[in-house]
Amino acid sequence: METTLHLISDLDGTWIPAGLDRGPLRKLEANIASRPDLTLTFATGRSLRSALRAFGHLLRVWPRNFIVDVGTALFHARAGGAWVENGDYASWVESRWDTRPLAEAGPRWLPTGVRPQPGISAARRLALEVDSWRDVPSAEADLRERLGRIGMVADVLATGRCLDVLPKGINKGTAAAFLQGGFQPSPPVMACGDSENDIALLDMADLPILMVDSRLDRRNRGLPWERVHRTRFPGPRGILEALLTLRCQGRSG
């Protein structure tokens, strides 16, 4: 059946909020399961292994695609529960990720109070964290300056206390746009998110959905505020309400 809607959702704080009441999740999943015309994709800052380990016991309906590591990797579901990485996307991202400047700079190039996030070893992303929330703005600025000084061409994305160094121009939004290229015809995109690493995803969507409990506000100039719909409820209940009440049409042109 032709896909008439591509639903792309963040996981932490969006599809799976803190203190999750499973009732709304079950209702959302039932709606998804009843719609063979809908393609579901999860987009997360986690690695695929981390997402499956953290949420595998909660989910009864699985996505067709997983955008992971803040958009630097893309996986597709295969028969038997296997996940296969998209090689074309991986090669494209890899071509934009030259880590030789990091290797030449040595381990002491990081700003004071910034360290690698424990347990994260991604092929095309550098995951860092800042000791204190108060220090995030200055640490981000210092990190950008140091990357420029050593000649590392990359983007820096701050989400909470986390700082991600990503290949230039790569994020959840670019991974979602790559996925869209595989549809004929391309369906409209409804995207759901709650944090800074969702902004590029929400920007590319035909209908961007911001969760009611998100900390993002109009100071986040990257958000397409003229098109953003903020849910009335958190988590799965808010997403289900959006699915049932909002009409999502593809962009023209």
Stretches where pLDDT is under 50 for at least 5 consecutive residues are none
The average pLDDT score comes to: 93
For the report, how would you describe the main beta sheet?
8 strands, mixed
The CATH C-level name of the largest domain is Alpha Beta
Alpha carbon gap, first and last residue: 25 Å
Alpha-carbon Rg, integer: 18 Å
Shape: globular
Strand arrangement across the biggest beta sheet: 5-4-3-2-1-10-11-12
Count of helical segments?
Answer: 8
How many domains? 2
Known CATH architecture of the largest domain: 3-Layer(aba) Sandwich
User: Helical residue percent?
Assistant: 25-40%
Helix/strand order, N-terminal first: EHEHEEEHHEEHEEHEHEEH
How does this model look, in words?
- Helix 1 (22-33) packs parallel to helix 8.
- The two termini are 25 Å apart.
- The model has no long low-confidence stretch (mean pLDDT 93).
- The chain folds into two domains: 5-92 and 170-245, HAD superfamily/HAD-like (Rossmann fold, 3-Layer(aba) Sandwich), CATH 3.40.50.1000; 97-167, Hypothetical Protein Ta0175, Chain: A, domain 2 (Alpha-Beta Complex), CATH 3.90.1070.
- Strand 10, helix 7 (199-204) and strand 11 form a beta-alpha-beta unit.
- The protein has eight helices and twelve strands.
- It has helices at residues 22-33, 48-55, 87-94, 100-105, 136-150, 172-180, 199-204, 235-245, and strands spanning 5-9, 38-43, 65-68, 73-78, 82-85, 114-116, 126-130, 154-159, 162-167, 189-193, 207-210, 229-230.
- It is of the alpha/beta class.
- The chain is globular.
- Strands 5-4-3-2-1-10-11-12 form an eight-stranded mixed sheet. Strands 6-7-9-8 form a four-stranded antiparallel sheet, covered by helices on one side.
